[in-house]
Amino acid sequence: MSAHIPLLTVVPALAGPLTEWQITAAYIVFAVSYLAFALGKLPGMKIDRPGMAIIGAVFMVALRIVPASEALRFIDFSTLVLLFSMMLVVACLHLSGFFDWVTEQIVSHIEPHHLLPTVIFITGLLSAFFVNDIICLVMVPFALLATRRMGLKPLPYLLAVATSANIGSVATITGNPQNMLIGSFSGLSYRSFLLHLGPVAFIGLCLNWLIIHWMCAGDLAPGDALVAGTAVPQISIGQLRKPAIVIALVLAGFLAGVPSAMMAAIGAALMLITRTRNPRQVYEGVDWGLLVFFIGLFLIVGGAENAGLTSHLRDIEQRFNLQNAGIFTAVTAGLSNLVSNVPAVMLLKTVVPGFRDPHTGWLVLAMASTLAGNLTITGSVANLIVVERAHDDVHIGFWDYSRVGIPVTLVTLVVGWAWLIWIR
Fold it and tell me: Residue 11: which residues within 8 A CB-CB, separation 6 or more?
């Protein structure tokens, strides 16, 4: 099932060679930036990941490691357009009441013992086609509302939201930011991505259901149903007609082979055509910090590549045989937990084009960087969103999460690796 995939030229050639001090400076900026990405902030300072990305990018340009006249050429705008457009689409869906309607249908029509698989597969399905971090913002209130009404303990269902958002998002290019990067760098089509990794997501969600049901069996028994503190808003079908049509068109375009960034941008533009909604409400749903982080990261990694990082990574690739899918899965998963998945993908994208089978290499990179996010509570932004959104109602500790996250991660990574080896 493998095929030759045309690769994009991401890093332009320098106008002239770097001096020795510029090369040293490039590696210092790169190392300090990735240290901040790994720790979440720069030690002793209040500089978060987006802030560090800005600082690192500015230094790369100021020190002329990345020529100012060529800086824009280092930024992959198709990735930024896709991410921004999908954020707008999901924000419009949220404001139109789509997710409230889904909540109403589920809460009104299922029994308590059906709630766990419902949460898992609804979260996974939505995360497959929309950005998983945003879906977590929507599904946490739903899980809390549903468990409150049914007299259930919310912890297993919140863990299901976090883990399922990561697993479901592995299926498509639009599932998460790192997949968007890989889709742009690799040239993989939306349909090919879905055909190869959709089964991994489905099997992973089934395994997630079994593991959570096993590990949290004592917390799944229903108690006394409580009166909901907040009623589910009543949404008319008429309100959902336009969003439904636009989403259908966007998904059809993805599957038909229209470039993902262009199709998502068309969908966002259609969603913004309205006579009733203030566009500022839509813009509030955009994670501007993530977009800034991406721009800075493009320049930081581009500067390091200009300083010779690519040749060093290729030496490492040959020494440790990263072309072996099992080894590459383990390295990607480890690095994703060390520095976060987006910086890991930005780093490892350099070595994949040199693989004997880059098609499988890109798929392994997408699979491992995404599923690795379930390992710990800090493994992905989706996990942190769930913890923070549920904080007032439920405390999710490190072990509360890890007793589910660790087995889910290990099992799904093995399944993903075996699947990709079998179909290549």
Answer: 74, 302, 305, 306
Q: Which residues, at least 6 apart from 120, have a Cβ–Cβ distance to it below 8 Å?
A: 160, 164, 205, 208, 209, 212
Express each pLDDT in 389-417 by its tens digit: 888 888 888 888 999 999 999 999 999 99
Q: Are 335 and 344 in contact (CB under 8 A)?
A: yes
DSSP state of 38: H
- Give residue 12's pLDDT: 52
Q: What's this model's pTM, rounded to 2 decimal places? A: 0.86
Contact 150, 226 (CB under 8 A): no
- Taking CA atoms, 386 is separated from 81, 247, 304, 309, 380, in Å, by 26, 25, 34, 36, 10
Q: Which residues of 324-353 are buried (b: 16+ CB within 10 A; e: fewer)?
A: ebeebbbbbbebbbebbbbbbbbbbbbbbb
Reading the block at residue 144, the tokens are 């809390």
Tell me the per-residue pLDDT of 156-168, one tens digit each, with 9 for 90 and over: 999 999 999 999 9
Task: Please state the rounded mean pLDDT for residues 249-266.
Answer: 93
DSSP codes of every residue in 241-305: HHHHHHHHHHHHHHHHT--HHHHHHHHHHHHH--SSS-HHHHHTTS-HHHHHHHHHHHHHHHHHH
Measure the CA–CA gap between 110 and 97, rounded to whole angstroms. Answer: 20
**Domain spans of the chain, in order of start:** 93-260+307-423
User: Given this model, what pLDDT does residue 7 score?
Assistant: 41
Stronger pLDDT, 368 or 243, i.e. the higher one: 368
